[in-house]
Amino acid sequence: MQVSGILFFYTICFKGKWLMRSALIVMLLLVGILYAGYLGRDLWRHRQELKSTTPASGWVAISGVFIFLLSTLGVSDFAVSTAIYSPTKWVTMKQLPGTLNVQGVLPFVMMGIGFTGVVKVAPVTLILLVGAQVVGAILSPRLVVKLPERTIKWWIACGLVVAGGFILASRLHLIAGNGTATELTGGKLLIGCLLQMVYGALNNIGIGSYALTTATVYALGLNPLVAFPVMMSGSALSVAAGSSMFIHYGDYNRKVAAVATSFGLLGVLLGLVVFAHFNVAIVTWIVIGVLFYTAGNLFYGLVQQRRVEK
């Protein structure tokens, strides 16, 4: 009986690869439906708040399309949203984390489904990397969040600069570069899973996983495109849980989140169309830009924080 059970599990996980990919898509779809219902109920209960004239829905809608178009191409929606919401005063600093998380879940779900269906990657590798990020997000209160945030940001920023430098050097043919694999095995798979757990934990202290995931995928020799289904699916599943708590406590800007997430879905569709015409070389240059941009933001934040403390 035990032997037959083991053989069944092996068949499902390693022979029935189509089933694993389909299971992930179904899971994403289920999370999206449940989350949409939960968010929709909260918005209906506070529908009078949505009728507020500030900010103007039209501008938020345009920004939502722009934010998630770029997000679909691998540019952090957290960073772009913050760059828009802070100077416009659309969202208070207190509500900013909740708004960023709440508005992102449904677009993430659509991205995850889209990229899982079109990007070639071994299902076992995809499932384990995505699952590791979700586990990291769940366990983070006992792990990463207890570490000094400044130290974490400093080392991550340095790591991103190094990773970006190596990728840039390979594109300029200064060093030999690889990045064509679609599957991880053995030690590389273990390293990838451990790092994804850390990235899932870092999400909860405001450090996005996009740049980190792309750097890791490239460093492990995978095709850069593999980063997209991994980071989108992982973000959808890990961010959904935290966002539900922001909704429960009402600690987010309902109007901005509602409009941005609705029109953000249109941005995702446009982004998927653009992505379909990309080649690996273009994606690699985007990865380089994202790595250096993210590192620069982290360094800038650390410098500003030190000035305030002085």
Automatic annotation (TrEMBL):
TM ranges: 18-38, 59-80, 100-119, 126-145, 151-169, 189-213, 225-249, 256-276, 282-303
Keywords for this protein: Membrane, Transmembrane, Transmembrane helix
PANTHER family recorded: MEMBRANE TRANSPORTER PROTEIN HI_0806-RELATED (PTHR43483)
Full protein name: Membrane transporter protein
* Source species of the chain: Furfurilactobacillus siliginis
